[in-house]
Amino acid sequence: MNKVITYYNAFDEWGRLDREPIEFIINLHHIKSLLPANGHILDNGAGPGKYAMELAKLGYRVTLTDLTPRLVEIAKKKAEEFQVEGQFAGFYPADARDLSLFPENYFDAALMLGPLYHLQEEESRVQAIRELHRVTKPGGLVFVALMSKTKFLTTSLMYPEFWKPNHTVQGIAEFLESGTFDHQDEGRFTGAYYFDIDDINPFMESHGFETVKLVGSSSIAGAMKEEQWDYWQQQGEEAFQQIMHIVMKESENPYMLGSASHLLYIGRKRA
């Protein structure tokens, strides 16, 4: 996992969610709409804590973990900046595959919006999901981010020179067979795992979760540019909110899941 730490030591993950806001807006919409009115939430693999800060502002008790110590320190500073540090039970460097610092059935709900697609070995993914299951209370909701093999295939075909070794037929074929991707160019996106969409719900359900829904985090608006957003905003606040309502609704449309770079699995720990 050293490559993951090295990558995120240099990458501005907070800024990515500002530059690509639709993913954050849609995920937060579904999280807020389904969480109980209060409780203790784990943000596992939280990065610099963008989601955790919003939950803290809403009054939730939050515990934050991330593999990269630098990002944990950034999250602490963000909590102070937003004056919500009192809502946090702790900030911990931790591997999603080993949450042994927490007891069983400890959190009312849990987010895992990054670790799973950095775990290329099936055994590691299973470990992470089992740990998520262990620390979540029975009946508690989990929100898990994954990446789609279909969307990354599209991206590779459109921009092959940016995604080596998927710039060759052999590279594409090997990716489709394994779901794993390791960038040939040093310093680019870390090694990752991309799910077949049909495998996501069965994978989570086989490890003790009941599926609530599977969401396309970029919905139908993921490819929209700034000028296109500006057009709809210029129609007035009421019209823009109606458009956003449509975008939120379409995020749950199963027929567009393959067009979303990030997916959000929402499940409930079976009692």
Write a structural description:
The protein has a seven-stranded mixed sheet with strand order 3-2-1-4-5-9-8, with helices on both faces. The chain has a two-stranded antiparallel ribbon with strand order 6-7. The protein is an alpha/beta fold and 271 residues long. It is built from eleven helices and nine strands.
Helix proportion range: 40-55%
Class from secondary-structure proportions: alpha/beta
Whole-number mean pLDDT: 92
Main sheet record:
7 strands, mixed
How far the N terminus sits from the C terminus, by CA atoms, comes to 33 Å
Strand % is 15-25%
Furnish the topology, listing elements before pairings:
Blueprint: H1 2-10, H2 13-19, H3 21-34, E1 40-44, H4 50-57, E2 61-66, H5 69-81, E3 88-93, E4 107-112, H6 122-135, E5 136-147, H7 149-158, H8 169-178, E6 180-181, E7 192-193, H9 197-205, E8 209-216, H10 226-233, H11 237-250, E9 262-269
Parallel strand pairs: 1-2, 1-4, 2-3, 4-5
Antiparallel strand pairs: 5-9, 6-7, 8-9
Helix pairs in contact: 2-3
Quick structural gist:
The chain has helices at 2-10, 13-19, 21-34, 50-57, 69-81, 122-135, 149-158, 169-178, 197-205, 226-233, 237-250; strands at residues 40-44, 61-66, 88-93, 107-112, 136-147, 180-181, 192-193, 209-216, 262-269. With 271 residues, it is α/β, with parallel strands linked by helices. The radius of gyration is 18 Å and the shape is globular.
What labels would you give this structure?
271 residues, alpha/beta, two-stranded antiparallel ribbon, 11 helices, 20% strand
